[in-house]
Amino acid sequence: MDFNVNSPMLFLLAGIVVAAVLAQSVYFLVKAWRRGLAIGMGKGKLKRVAVTAGVFTIAPAVAIVISVITLAKDLGVPLPWLRLSVVGSLSYETIAASNAESAMGLTFGQVTGLNATEYVTIACVMTMSIMVGIWLVPLIGKKLQNGMISMENRDKKWGDIFSASMFIGMISAFLGYVFCDFSTVFHGDMSGLIPVLVMIVSALIMCLAGLLVKKTQWRWVSDYALPISLVVGMASAIPITAWLS
Amino acid sequence: MKKQLSYMDSVHRDGRIWNLSVMVLLILFPVSVAVIYHVMPDWRGFLMGLLATAPMYWAVGVIETITYVPMLGAGGSYLSFVTGNISNLKLPVALNALEQADVKISTEEGEVISTIAIAVSSIVTTLIIILGVILITPLTPVLNAPVLAPAFAQILPALFGGLGVVFISKNWKISVAPVILMLILFIFVPALNSGTVGIMVPVGVLFTLGVSRILYKKNLL
Q1: CA B201 to CA A43: how far, in whole Å?
Q2: CA-CA distance, A226 to A56, in Å (whole number)?
Q3: Which single residue of A57, B9, B75, B156 has CA 20 to 30 Å from A65?
């Protein structure tokens, strides 16, 4: 069989794995939904969570499609489709593919026709290098969860603070990341301000949404505040970038 | 008599089966391509590529597992570590859902809410990617349009601006020190950038836990 990075056979193989992942998501959704109803959480509450999560996901998911398009130039469509549907992210896949290609004397972004050997090698590197969480969670996930629960049982207040601290620690790292190019401002290059201003726009939208909920009691505003702040923040990046670049 | 599993135990059992099955399927992809096209990997290229990529991502994978599992809940963890995009999508989705429902992740309600949010997010993501793959030819010029590029380049600032307001305003006492530390580090240490933010998450988490513990012991929280 002649090899082609976009051959129907590769689509079929990638499609099987993607279908399994989709089935896993549906399985856990149904299981959690049933449990939620069984412990009296109310269909309305669960539905609201599901709809908000779905709406919130649209913009980041479109960004993932762009990543598929970016990687497809070198690797064809099936492999990036698989990699970005299972575990992957653009930064990781780019680094892994680029390292594998350069190990074989190829240059990432300039590859036109991979042969089957090169393709299998790249797919192996991309697959093996990221495969830790997928087996480590089954190995230690339960212990970590039980540790959290027993800590909560020992000291409920500290348990709450512990959870909040983990979230804040994660968020603070990403807020720091927003400022990672800020030092360019000291050298007269204002482009480092772009992410900072986008973050401020998004934060302001969130504050406005909070005020609106307080004044009007419109519950739906609170449900969609995060997706709205995300999309408005992203949209604001267009004029801000044009202004500061 | 067969022992009745609790809901949490059944989540762990099912999660283990699903994750290990998907892992096998993932490995089977390159193996199947090799068998179908009668080729072997370029072993030298594979080893060199693996050596250049795996050590850092394996270390990050271990740290991410320990850091994110307590935040995602059981069902959410099994799903997130299969579908990926944790810090930029699954965790924010779960945090927002927990906040909306006003429940803690360590409760069964929190477990249910987090799992539903992450499962829906995973399904929507997978379906949108499938749609993108089917429509890749007409979509490419639209999504690659230069006018849209800045918007997609700034997803993380747009995401964490909104999320930051919610969590920092509710926990400002424990937020001040880690936010200041991270701002100083990211502004003045040139090595810290989008590639290293994943490594800084556990640093931020450990630092915040330390600060919170001191404040808690001094009855300041």
Answers
A1: 35
A2: 7
A3: B75
DSSP string of chain B, one letter each residue: -PPPPPHHHHHHHHHHHHHHHHHHHHHHHHHHHHHHTT----HHHHHHHHHHHHHHHHHHHHHHHHHHHHHH-HHHHHHHHHH--IIIIIHHHHHHHHHHHT--TTSHHHHHHHHHHHHHHHHHHHHHHHHHHHTHHHHHHHHT-TTTHHHHHTHHHHHHHHHHHHHHHHSHHHHHHHHHHHHHHHHH-TT-STTTHHHHHHHHHHHHHHHHHHHHHTT--
Nearest CB to A177 within list B18, B65, B194: B194
Residue B199 lies in a domain: yes
- How far CA B28 is from CA of A152, B34, B45, B57, B83, in Å, comes to 41, 10, 19, 21, 17
Look at residue B179 and tell me if it is in a domain.
Answer: yes
What would the pLDDT profile of B172-190 be if each residue is shown by its tens digit?
999 999 999 999 999 999 8
In a domain, B4, yes or no: no
B interface test, pick of A41, A77, A124, A158 with most B CB neighbours within 10 Å? A124
Closest C-alpha to B39, from A235, A123, A163, A96: A123
Q: Six-digit token pair at A138?
A: 């089954």
Look at residue A193 and give its three-state secondary structure: helix
For chain A, 245 residues long, give each residue's pLDDT as a single digit of tens. Answer: 789 999 999 999 999 999 999 999 999 999 999 999 999 999 999 999 999 999 999 999 998 999 899 889 889 999 999 999 998 777 788 888 888 888 888 888 777 788 999 999 999 999 999 889 999 999 999 999 888 888 888 998 998 899 899 999 999 999 999 999 999 999 889 999 999 999 999 999 999 999 999 899 887 888 889 999 999 999 999 999 999 98
**Residue B188 in domain:** yes
User: How far is it, in rounded angstroms, from Cα A99 to Cα B49?
Assistant: 5
Domain assignment of residue B199, given as a range: 171-221
Q: In a mutagenesis test of the B interface, which of A129, A163, A172, A223 is the best target, namely the one with the most B β-carbons within 10 Å?
A: A172
Report CB contact under 8 Å: B157, A233: yes
pTM as predicted: 0.89
Report the 10 Å Cβ neighbour count for A113: 9
Q: Where are the domains of chain A?
A: 8-131, 179-244
Rounded CA-CA distance A179/A191 in Å is 11
